[in-house]
Specification:
By secondary structure, the chain is of the alpha/beta class. The protein has helices at about 10-25, 30-35, 40-50, 75-80, 90-110, 145-160, 190-200, 215-225, 230-235, 275-285, 285-290, 330-335, 360-385, and strands at about 25, 55-60, 70, 120-125, 130-135, 160-165, 210, 240, 245-250, 255-260, 295, 305-310, 315-320, 345, 355.
C-alpha cells in the first residue's frame, strides 16, 4: 500500500503544500499575500513541512542578499507512485491504518534526529592509556585556582597517552556583568568563555579531548541566551559532544570499556556519594547506564571512588571534585573542600583497568606503566633491526 505523507499534515500545511505543488514555483511573499499573513509565518510553515519529511526545493531569483527565492515541491520526491490522500475509505479503521503507517514513518525520521549516538574510541596500542575526568572548574569563581588550571592543561598536553573527558561546570556562568553586588564571579560570561578557550588552546593540536558534557552551570546559558556553551566548544575543538549525559565506548585492542558520564544524577545520600550512580543504573538512567562498566558524575563537589555489584554487574564508580581553593558551596552544605580531586582511569593494553580518585597518583602510574611496556617492545625492535 502506498502511504502519503500528506496524511500527517495539518489543514493549513496541506494548503501550503498544494500551492507549492500546483504553482510549480512561487515566492514566500506571494503566498503570504494571497493568505493575508506575514511572510515569516509562511517560512515557519516551510520549516514544519520539512520536519515532516516534505522536500521543498528553492532557487534564488537574483544574486543580491535581499532577493527572494521561489519555492516548489516535486511530488516524486515525496511519494512512491500515485498520491493516495484523496482515497475514499469504507471504514474509519481503514483510514486510521493508512494514517498510522504515515505517522510511524514521520515519527521515526523525527526521533532519529534527536537520539544521541553512542561514541566509540578505538585504540590499538601496546602502551597503556588514561582517561582523565574534569569537572567543576567554575572558571570565573572568585576562589578559583587559576594557576593550577594552567598547570593541569600543561600536564595534559605534555603527558603521552593521556586523554580527557569534560563532565560539566567548566565555567561558573553566574553573571552578565563584571562582579555585581552579591556575585561570586570576578569576570563576566564572555570572559569566562575566553579563559576556557585559552586553556583548551594548550591541547587543541594534541587530539586529546574525547568527549564533552554539559553541566548545570553551562545550562544557564541555554536558558538565558539559547546558547549551548559546551556544544560550541566541542565543535570548535573538533571533538564529540555528549549533551547532558550519555555512554561512550573505549576499546583497547578489541577489549571494550563502556563508560557512562553525567554531570548531575538524581538522588542524594550524605553517607554514600556513589548512591546517585547506583540509582542511575537501576532506575533513572538505566537505558544508557545499565550496561556501563565505569560511571562518572560530578556536581556536588565531593570526591569518591568505589566498586559495587549493581544490577548483576560489577561497576566502577568515580565522583569528580572541584578546582576551587575555598569551596563556599561545600562549606554551605557541610562537605569538605576537595581541591583537585579529579579522578582518572588507566586502561592497560590487555583491556584491564585501574581507577584513581586523584589524578596525581594516576599520572605517575601511567608514566611507569608506559615505561615498562616500552622496554618490552624495544628488544623486539632491536632484534628486527639486527636482522
Amino acid at each position: 500500500m502506498v502511504v502519503n505523507r500528506k496524511q500527517v499534515l495539518t489543514r493549513i500545511e496541506k494548503e501550503i503544500y498544494d500551492i507549492l505543488v500546483d504553482e510549480g514555483g512561487v515566492t514566500a511573499e506571494e503566498i503570504a499575500r494571497t493568505r493575508h499573513v506575514k511572510r515569516n509565518q509562511i517560512q515557519k510553515m516551510f520549516v514544519n513541512l520539512r520536519k515532516k519529511g516534505v522536500i521543498i526545493r528553492q532557487q534564488k531569483t537574483g544574486s543580491g542578499p535581499g532577493d527572494d527565492a521561489i519555492y516548489w515541491i516535486d511530488e516524486e520526491d515525496v511519494f512512491e507512485g500515485k498520491p493516495t490522500y484523496k482515497k475514499e475509505y469504507k471504514t474509519r479503521a481503514e483510514y486510521g491504518y493508512d494514517l498510522l503507517q504515515g505517522v510511524k514513518m514521520v515519527a521515526e525520521v523525527q526521533t532519529n534526529r534527536f537520539m544521541p549516538e553512542v561514541r566509540h574510541f578505538d585504540f590499538e596500542s601496546q602502551l597503556s592509556i588514561a582517561i582523565l575526568y574534569l569537572a567543576d572548574f567554575h572558571i570565573g569563581h572568585q576562589h578559583g585556582d587559576y594557576g593550577a588550571m594552567e598547570f593541569m592543561f600543561d600536564l595534559i598536553a605534555n603527558t603521552e597517552g593521556l586523554y580527557v573527558v569534560f563532565v560539566g561546570d567548566m565555567i561558573d556562568n553566574s553573571v552578565n556583568a563584571i562582579a555585581p553586588t552579591g556575585s561570586t564571579n570576578i569576570v563576566d560570561k564572555d570572559g569566562q568563555l575566553a579563559i576556557y578557550e585559552s586553556l583548551l588552546a594548550k591541547v587543541t593540536d594534541k587530539k586529546k579531548l574525547l568527549i564533552m558534557f554539559e553541566g548545570n552551570h553551562e545550562v544557564r546559558s541555554i536558558i538565558s541566551d539559547h546558547f549551548r556553551v559546551t556544544q560550541y566548544i566541542a565543535k570548535q575543538q573538533d571533538t564529540e559532544y555528549g549533551n547532558f549525559g550519555h555512554q561512550f565506548v573505549v576499546t583497547m585492542n578489541g577489549s571494550p570499556t563502556i563508560i557512562y558520564c553525567r554531570h548531575k544524577m538524581k538522588g542524594h545520600s550524605q553517607y554514600n556519594p556513589l548512591h546517585q550512580m547506583v540509582r542511575a543504573v537501576l532506575f533513572d538512567n538505566c537505558r544508557h547506564a545499565g550496561n556501563a562498566d565505569v560511571l562518572v558524575r560530578a556536581h556536588t563537589h565531593e570526591s569518591a571512588m568505589g566498586v559495587f555489584k549493581v544490577g548483576n554487574k560489577v561497576r566502577e564508580m568515580l565522583v569528580c571534585g572541584n578546582a576551587v581553593v575555598y569551596d563556599d558551596f561545600a562549606d554551605r552544605v557541610g562537605y569538605e573542600s576537595m581541591k583537585w580531586s579529579m579522578p582518572m582511569t588507566i586502561i592497560r593494553p590487555d583491556g584491564t583497568r585501574r581507577n584513581y580518585r586523584r589524578f596525581t597518583e594516576g599520572i605517575q602510574d601511567l608514566k611507569d606503566f608506559r615505561e615498562i611496556e616500552m622496554r618490552r617492545i624495544e628488544p623486539e625492535d632491536d632484534e628486527e633491526d639486527g636482522e
